[in-house]
Amino acid sequence: MRLTRTHLTTTALAGIAVLGLAGCSADASGEEATAASSDGLTTVTVGASPVPHAQILEFIDSELAADAGIDLEIVEFDDYVLPNESLASGELDANYFQHLPYLESQIADKGYEFEHGAGVHIEPYAAFSSTYASIDELPDGATIAITNDVANQLRGLRLLDSAGLLNGVTDESSAINLTDEQNPHGFVFVENQPEVIVQQIDDPAIDLAFVNGNFILQAGLNTDDALLVESVEGNPNANLLVWRADNDNEGVAVLEELLHSPEVADFISETWPSGDVLPGA
Questions:
Q1: Which residues, at least 6 apart from 67, have a Cβ–Cβ distance to it below 8 Å?
Q2: Superfamily of domain 126-229
């Protein structure tokens, strides 16, 4: 398996120049390797979570893409499994919904041959409760809803550790292997998909629910109302663009450049001024 982020980004500027002259490229057999739209732009099909990823892509498509020679087709996904499956099967040219730890875990589990760009934005991970107003009120034996994917689950456990509610969380820790010493308050963890957990916040059986950033936004929530919020300083969980290792669509390199443009950084800061989405790796 391969996991690099240098191949496309180092050729992106050259790709922009090429795309200004031609809407598609050809492989050794002479067949078109890159789709071209009717107006001569190179079509890039990108899978994304609706918020904020698709919103960022829509801004690029309406304000920046045409001048760079590309046209975006945005396919929205409400889960974290199908975007990578669709990319691997060739239905997508790229996807934009995940951070590096999740991508690495998916590659290890599924054997995907993917490459990736630099981090575009960070969505702080947060925990919400409809029962308690402060994390200090969380009782012993509380039931905590937490995602069932390894990378994001560890983010939640580390948040509880930083709040002094768990002890000695390590990179190998999971909700099901915590020792009594690590879990002195006897919390009961209920694992589920992140798109389900956001619906469990108001469930009286759930005392605390960890919610991924994009679902926080989709649900109309705000991290100001969360009991725990992940720090963004030194955060390794920036979301990034991902493509197949055998990608032959030059427009993907152009999109990677545009995602790191000052215009996109300004759009993110202006659209989410409360800090629920922050530009930068």
A1: none
A2: Periplasmic binding protein-like II (3.40.190.10)
